Amino acid sequence: MSKSELFEKGLKVRKEVLGEDYVNRSIAGADEFTRTMAEWSTEFCWGALWTRPGMDRRTRSIVNLAMLGALNRPHELKLHVKGALKNGLTKDEIKEILLQVAVYCGVPAGIDAFRNAREAFNEVDAK
């Protein structure tokens, strides 16, 4: 599969999970400095990984929420909370994932993750 095919597959999945408006704004906002990273993440994260048959999107969302919470990456966590809702997770399931983060990665990481998840829920509910 060529790079452009993998990018196109990734772009499709990325739009389905994160929303077409968000992805289009993200791509339009890329400049000469950030464009390579945007293309790389679309191609490899979304095209090469998220399209693999070994795990469904719901499970990938669970794994991502746990990792992003553990790494304390608020912007990405918030984005992936919204994607997790689209992938079928409930708010209660997300809460349980973030409680797991708090126990295994530290309460400060859990508190930040809960704060960001609540912001994501509020944004989704406002639409």
TrEMBL record:
GO molecular function: peroxiredoxin activity
Alphabetized InterPro entries for the sequence: 4CMD/NDH-1_regulator, AhpD-like, CMD-like
Domain Carboxymuconolactone decarboxylase-like: 37-118
PANTHER family from the UniProt entry: 4-CARBOXYMUCONOLACTONE DECARBOXYLASE FAMILY PROTEIN, CARBOXYMUCONOLACTONE DECARBOXYLASE-LIKE DOMAIN-CONTAINING PROTEIN
Pfam families: CMD
Protein name, per record: 4-carboxymuconolactone decarboxylase
